[in-house]
Amino acid sequence: MHNEMEVRFLSLSQNEGFARAAAAAFAAQMNPGIEELSDIRTAVSEAVTNAIIHGYDQNPDRVVTMQMEIDDDDLVVIVRDDGCGIGDVALARKPFFTSKPELERSGMGFSVMEAFMDSLDVQSGLGKGTTVTMRKRIRHANR
Amino acid sequence: MELHAQKRGPRLTVRLSGELDHHSAEQTRIMLDTLLRDVTVSELLLDLSGMSFMDSAGLGVILGRFRKLSMRGGRLIVKGVNPSVDRIFQMSGLYAIVERQ
Ligand SMILES: Nc1ncnc2c1ncn2[C@@H]1O[C@H](COP(=O)(O)OP(=O)(O)OP(=O)(O)O)[C@@H](O)[C@H]1O
Ligand SMILES: [Mg+2]
After folding, report:
1. What is the pLDDT of residues A115-138, one digit of tens each?
2. ipTM for the predicted complex
3. A31 belongs to the catalytic site
């Protein structure tokens, strides 16, 4: 089965919950297990929150795009912003690294995406925005 | 996010229900800090069993409250941790500083 979807929403924090719900509703047609669905929700939440907090510096009138693709048991989630971008992606991906410690960030977002999905790719550059691509093979465990 | 607080001696138990993400973090932080203004509290037990979602923003809220409490010699305990939240706690090394009941 092949399917695709794309949603665009403003960089408002209330859309973090919307993005999680939309991602879970779309992934549900793959018949994932409860844990797999929870992993997808968490990883999507991390990527979308980063776009809002870091990419757009909490500016509420910018646009975040989430694209999803299903190919049989393979799920791809792409979260994109046209915000400030990341200068050093390798550093940003390190556990506990955060550029905003004053906001009580723990610097675990990328580590969570990596742990909860099968792969994580981050394309970014200063002033060029950020595209986060995550893949997960659905194994239908504990359905 | 809804909070139900109960105090017994130096222990404050707070049950969190709802979703703890970046959107609800600010409000949750303010409500917890208001409760922690009571200087007789030296133990904060967070009951997470009613929490339907948490990501790294929730981790930030918990770590921030831990720092506050440890500055006055207090401690933080978590209970009702679901498997997904447990994984985030394990990854972040949270259990080295926060007890699990
Ligand atoms: N979309 C983005 N645009 C610009 N910078 C980003 C973006 N996503 C992440 N970053 C940078 O990468 C760093 C690490 O991100 P990560 O999600 O791991 O931690 P955090 O968001 O700082 O904290 P946490 O996710 O634990 O609340 C961020 O502090 C930020 O500097
Ligand atoms: Mg983050």
Report:
1. 999 999 999 999 999 999 999 999
2. 0.94
3. no
Q: Do B16 and B46 touch, CB atoms closer than 8 A?
A: yes
- The response to whether residue A137 sits with its C-beta less than 6 Å from ligand 1 reads no
Pocket flag, ligand 1, residue A129 (CB < 6 Å): no
Catalytic position from the list A15, A16, A36, A50: A50
Domain over B2-100 is classified CATH 3.30.750.24 = yes
pTM above 0.90, yes or no: yes
CA of B56 to the centre of ligand 2 (A): 7
DSSP code, position A127: T
Identify the residue whose tokens are 């979807």: A5
Assign domain A2-137 one CATH number from 3.40.50.20, 3.30.565.10, 3.10.50.40, 3.90.1170.50.
Answer: 3.30.565.10
* Helix ranges restricted to H, A11-57: 14-27, 34-50
Identify whether A15 is a catalytic site residue. Answer: no
Ligand 1 atom with the smallest distance to the CA of A55 is: 3
For ligand 1, the distance from its centroid to the CA atom of residue B49, given in whole angstroms, is 28
Distance CA B28, CA A100 (A): 19
Q: Where are the domains of chain B?
A: 2-100
CA distances from A113 to B11, B52, B57 (A): 35, 18, 13
